[in-house]
Amino acid sequence: MGLEEYKRKRDFTKTPEPSGSLRARKRGELFFCVQKHLASHLHYDLRLEHDGVLLSWAVPKGPSLDTSVKRLAMKVEDHPIEYGEFEGVIPEGYGAGVVMLWDRGTWTPETPDVDAALKKGDLKFTLNGYKLKGSWVLVRTGGRYPGARGGGDRAWLLIKHRDDWSGDLDITEFAPKSVKSGGDFEDILADDTPAIWASNRPSKGGETGAMLARIIDRAAKLRAERSAAPSRKKAPSSTGLPRKRRAAAPTAGKRAPSSRRKT
Fold first, then answer.
1. DSSP letter at 4?
2. 44 with 35: CB under 8 angstroms?
3. What mean pLDDT do residues 106-121 have?
4. In degrees rounded to 5, what are phi and psi of residue 147?
5. Is residue 263 part of a domain?
């Protein structure tokens, strides 16, 4: 797909998102990330590096470690490689909201020909991130789903394969914070310009609108507290997990016992 659609949808004089370019890298480990995006709806964006871009799917409910759960994943435009490190506030326009780098790491295709797998609509792969690990599959489906725009070849399902990293742990609830900053949405917003949201909120009404209103309020309070009593920021957790739970956090090369499922 390239980056034409990505650039067409954005005004880079107004958004802090990287304009990016096709950037083929030397052979080596392939990058992946998942960005938690509070916009018109809260969703998670899965991005896999391939041929100089990030292949991207929007996953409304986020990834699940439960092998019986099939999560809708809507194929969206390719993103530039630089987007994989993006975290911040999109003040207006397409995708207006708060973006968190929820997970990142490397991925390995479980097929020798990724393009053929994408064309077939059956991409199997292994993730090695801070939060997501093990074997997964993206399967294209011609079905249509309530609330999903379009359909046809845009609708895929994200499914976890049974392995040491599958289980009934709700990873989005257990590990909700950023792997980049260690913060939550309010921390990201507080580091930006909360005043923008007083008149230009990306979501109005409904559950998402109420969530954003609470986040804006907490962000404003955080910013006020920091201004009144400046202090050295705490070093972020390398996993983005709550510090009191770091001992149980899944890390590279180690399994999380609480998420292991008996086979």
1. H
2. yes
3. 95
4. 85, -5
5. no
